[in-house]
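Blinded run. Sample ID left blank on purpose so nobody reads anything into the name before looking at the predicted structure. Input follows.
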Amino acid sequence: MPGGSGGELTSGYARILDEIIGLLNIEMYSSVGVGSGDRLVLMGLREGAVNAYSFDGVDLVKLNKEPISGIARVPYDADKVVFIRDVSHGREQHLIYTVHLDEPGNEKTLEGVEPARILGVAYDDHRIVYSASTAVENGLFIAESGVKKIATLPGFAMVSDINDKYAVGVGLLEPATGRSQAFIADLATGKISVYKRMDGNAITARFSPDGWVLIAIEGSAKAELLRLDPETMEAEQLVLPGKDLDEFEPRSYSYVGFLPDGELVVVGRKNGRTKVFVDGVALKVPEGIHGGVYKWKNRLILTHTSLGNPARIIDVNGEVVLSGEVPKYIYEALGSPGFHFIESSDGSKVPTFSIESKRAGKPGPTVVLVHGGPFSEDADVWDFFAVSLALAGYNVVKPNYRGSTGYGDQWRMKIIGDPCGGELRDIVSVAKWSLLQGIADTLYIMGYSYGGYMTMCALTKYPGMFKAGVAGASVVDWKQMYELSDAAFKSFIQMMFGGKMDLLEERSPITYIDNLSDPLMIIHPQNDSRTPLKPVLRFMEEGLDKGKTFEAYIAPDMGHAVTKVDDILKILYPAILFLLRQKEI
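Blinded prediction complete.
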């Protein structure tokens, strides 16, 4: 075995694992609103978990008792914060909690809420509206002198805003179409009105100060902003005073909101980076990804992240308001990110980020790191997995395969009805490109959730392409997963397959387990309710019967969502140790 004696290897592993511990201790913050007393409300990865905080410019105050799963956007000058918490050890059965900004730690459970998969929450000073999925249905609920269901939704959806009369949001309201739609719910009658486009996906919906609905659309050619009348459901293109946004031609939007004086703030997204606009006029902000733009203490603040910057709070002049400290050794290991359009097997161009590790060399061992979703995007952002791989001596390439968001409706829709098909060929094309470009001399593949599914597909359909693979929280059997899913994920699977449910077996890695020949590390949360463990156990059982060799780690007392540093360690430690061993073989 090359690389020195066993003691030297063990010492090297220990150093890398210690560095990863340091990486995971970096504090990260994102802004979610400005409450009463001009206090900035944040969601932070701090104290080993995701928590809610208020910040007055001097003191950072933790608001919740136990770690949270998510937090609702805070209306300007609100005196309370609303958040959700998983009460089922990772199975994503949530309850809703409130806490007054003047009484940190004195959180209260919202009475009358049954544990469910809560997908969206919006609130004002006297009521809370939320969307949730149970085993049998998707529903919209209101908490106002008790909790009642407003309406049953035809698919799963995320409520995003309310006013005196309506709630709005987006979701898969017609799953078989593969597209997301915007909805408006009458809070008094429960009537659901749906706004849909045949050439675009609704990203989010917000009320303007004067009552119309702003809908952000990821369209075919470019992203759009629509002004919708909730009474007539008639929509028109929104015209803004500034023209910088039109000239930028965003492909998607990361954030939309209104400032206290009524100005519209949007964060436009294009080629893995964003720009910030107020009433259509561009602001000069650091390169990367931005969100959570608010007026606080007479200045405009926002969340910013990039490959070299964990999520932090800055103002529009780039001055840091709140951030974690990054150890020097991380910057010494990271090279600059590259952005490329890589030709796939059918001539499509796959948007891809590459990250050079200064410890790997070029060409060097390279991990194709596949994002989950699939409706997500690898961008110029801080990424625990990519940085950890760079520390371990791997270059990283991150393909935005078809189905990824941020590149228009046509690219997103190419995956519908074709899982483990065209998107897998995109990933393989990117892997081959990294060899030809002199980035990689040896290829590995790794992913979590849909990225884990892609890893399983790659190892069973392209044996020999990768030296080894790490599959986290992966799909291995769509048919059994469908049987085990709640209403939300049944809708998701119907959408992914475009209603062609006869393809479930054909597109499942367990069908091709005979082809598995490359080293595989399976990492799976014990309590995962999105990609359940039972099919993975059956995959392992069949693998044993067929004489396949693999490693497996079942993460105890953990679900699919990662909300604690301990959760990240349960994924990263076995993954990095496995890859390091494979590199030495």
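Unblinding after everyone has recorded impressions. Residues 1-5 have pLDDT under 50 and may be disordered.
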